[in-house]
Structures are given as C-alpha cells and as structure tokens.
Fold this protein.
Amino acid sequence: MVLRSAEDNAPGMLNVRDFGSKGDGITDDTTAIRQAAEAANQQRRTLFFPAGRYIVSSGGFDIDANRTGWWGDGAEIHLTHALPGGYLIRLFSTASYETARANNRAALYGLAITGGGLGPAREYPDTTAIMYGDDKHDTNSLFTTEHVSVDGFAYAIGFRGNVYMWQMEKCYIRGGRILVPAGLKNFGERMVVRDSVLADTTYQVTEFKSGYWFFENVSFDNIPIRIAGDAVAWFTGCHFENAGGHAPYRYLSIDIENGVPGEAHITSSNVVNNPPTDKEYWDQPLFWVHSDIRNDRGLHIQNVRMPNSNTYRSELSEGSRVLVGGGGRVNASGVTTFTQTGSQWVLSRYESLLVNPGFEEGVNGWTNTGSSGGQWAADGSRPRVGRQALRLTSTAGRIATAGQTFPVAPGRHVSANVWLRHVVQGRGALEVLLIWLDVAGNPIGHTGSLVSVTANTDWTLRTVMAPDPAPAGTTRATILFCTQAASGTVTSWVDEVLVTVL
Ligand SMILES: [Ca+2]
C-alpha cells in the first residue's frame, strides 16, 4: 500500500496508484492498471486515476459500465504504440437501462487518451482509442463519456454490435475518425454528442452508417462527415468549419448505403470557411446529397448562418458557388449569407426556381418581350449542359432578350449561377439584369447590369447577384438576358440558369 494524502482518493473509488501504477510518464503502468481494473470490476467500484501520465504498452482494456468506470483528475493515459485491428479501451454493459442504475454515472470521466500524435503520419494506424459495444450483450445502453479528450489514433471512437442510449459530453476529439458501422442493433437509439469539439481529421471522413444521432452545440472543425444508409443525424447549435473543400471532402455528404439514403437536419448552426489561400479555394459544394429526391430523406437545413469576416469567408472559387450539390432531396429555409466580401451563393444547383432552366424544352417558360429585332432560339449546336442552350443574336442597333419571372418577397436576395458564351463579330455586349415586379406585374425598378460580357468568351460560369435585396412591394422578379450589338453581329449563348432566393 502506497501512502498518499486523503484528497488523492475520491470517496468510494479504488485508486489506481494503490496497485503500483506510477503515472510518472516513464514507468510502464500496464500491468498495475490491469490489476486495478479487475479489482474495480469485481468490487463494482470506480477506478480513480490521480493526476499524472500513465504509460501503457498494450490495450484491450474492457470496462463493464454496469460494474465499474474509469475516472481521472487531470490524468493522461498514453499508449506507446499502435494496436493494429485493436482498441485501447472498450466500454460495454452487462445490464440494460431497465435495470442499470450504475450506468447512470459516467463510465469514462476526466481522462486524456493519447496515441501517436496529430496528423495521418503520426496517428496510430488501424487503432481505435475507445470502442463502444460488443456482439454479446443486447444491453449496451446508457454509456456516458464526459470530459474526455482523445488524440493520436486513426480511429478516435468506434462502435460495434449493439450500442444505444449513449452519450458523449464535454469531450474533445482531435484527429482520428469516428466510425459507425451499418446495422447497429436497437437502431442505435438516441446517440447524443453534446457540448463537444470534433476536430482536425485532415480529410479523413467520419462516417455514420446507422443510428439516430443528436449533435448539440458541437464544433466540427476540419472534419468531413458522411451520413449514409439507416443513419439519421440532427445537428443543432453546431459549428461547421473548413471541412475540406476539395472533392470528395465536404462538410457533410448524404449517401446511399444498402439502397437507403441517409438523412440529416442542420438547424440553427454556423457554417464558416477560413479565408481561402491559393491552395485552399473551395471547388466543391459544401454539402452533397445523393438520395432519391422523391422521399424525405436527404438534407434539411433551417436557420443556418454563413458569416463573412476578415477571419471567415463563405466563398467558393469561380466555377462552383453552390451550397448543396449531388441532386438529392434538399429542404431549406432561413439560410443567411453575408455579402460584404462579394461572396455569393446558389443554394442548390438542382433546385432552380425557373422552369426549363437549361433550355432542354426549347424556350418553354421564357419570353423575349424586350427584344427589338434581335433573334432568340434554342440551339443544339454547342450546349453547355444537355442537348440545347439558348442563343441570342443581334446586329447593329438590334436587341435580343430572353427572360423568366419567379416569385420573390421584399427583403430577399436573389442569387443565380449561369453559364454564358459570347461571340462578337463587331462590337456588342451580353448583359444580365433583374427587374423587380409588383403584385400587378408592373416593374418597380431594376438592378442595372449585373454581368456584362463584351469580349469573346467560351462557356464561363458567372454568378449573378443583386447588390440590394428586393425592394418593398416586390412579389416577383424577372431575370433578363439582353444581347445588343453596336456594330457587326453579336451572338450569345445561355445555359443552366440556376436561380435561388436567399
Ligand atoms: Ca442545356
């Protein structure tokens, strides 16, 4: 028995130092911790780790949360090398929520679990820091992990077999993916992550393939997330930052697994990017939804804010200023963007407010009422997308136009992505503008030219955004393409007109 001060020992707990562990950062404490953990399990008591750095050289510590738990007070448990295919700590329970009063306390508390260091080159490969559940017990419920940090493992958190009514609170998971396999038993009922930080997996994708996940007040920093199959995830009061930007890494991907698309709800949350550098321009939509658009699974976004500042920009590179890609189901409302740095968004490239936005049905849905002698036609000679584009042709003094009207309320911003091509034999311009309309359909102002193309230009994606929101009295707006020649002949092409009201 080692002499120690009374305050070292929390009431009712076994002290790991009573079994010979040193926690000095040098001594291998593996054997002492195993003996202490076995005694704690037999006596149904919590094992206490006083402050210190406990070195372990092997893993496979199994903790029955119904009988015992590990609590630390500024204690670090450091694994000295990788455990290929293995785990450091596994939590399971031999009693379910129906009988398990013991499970109501935290099974892991106040511990730092450390491995090889941060970054893929240092994290222990094929090694899981904390594994939850097993194949033997249908009773793996009410696990709580609290005030625990993990870093330095390829897999920070793993699940197997059966886990439900599980929660992780006030934890800091840095580096290392979270992997949730398909087919968790009990449907993965009520899996909660609260007031925590998941950070820096450097393009390693954290995956949820089953379970009902509730993330509340969680920061996801530099973490691409994939929700697939039976998994459903709710994100409330969360912060998504800088998940990856380059294909295929996105903030959040909804994917089909075993024929079933995942589902995610992002509510009252922030989405931010660090300022792009040369290497870090965002070239992909932030969210990607691969689902059947006819069912409700997919992505649901409500009250999401994308702030800009000198520190953060919601800005994508030329070529893809799109919030949601992939063609699946998207429901969105209350998405707020800030435009002071010129950032512009289209909500979803598959949710244009226009009829026939790609001219695949000729000019159906479009009008050319502002034309003055210019020609307009659907043209299959060189479409940007699909079989046809719109062609506007003008000679000196003539004007060719095409426009379409869509609903918009006062105070809303209109944003569009559009592909433009322009061939000038002489002198002339293609201009894009918005005309605001009142309830009677009369113009109550226009934006002036938002895009003006005067030089020969092959297909180019342009973002069109009114600098001011729709004025009072607006009920609809017309997006208008206008080609005008001062001399010679000017021909413009337009395709994929994707209009979003923000
Ligand atoms: Ca087309």
About this structure: Confidence is low (pLDDT under 50) at residues 309-320, 339-343. The pocket of calcium ion is lined by residues 358-360, 383, 385-386, 388-389, 495 (CB under 6 Å). The longest strand covers residues 476-501. Residues 30-43 form the longest helix (14 residues).
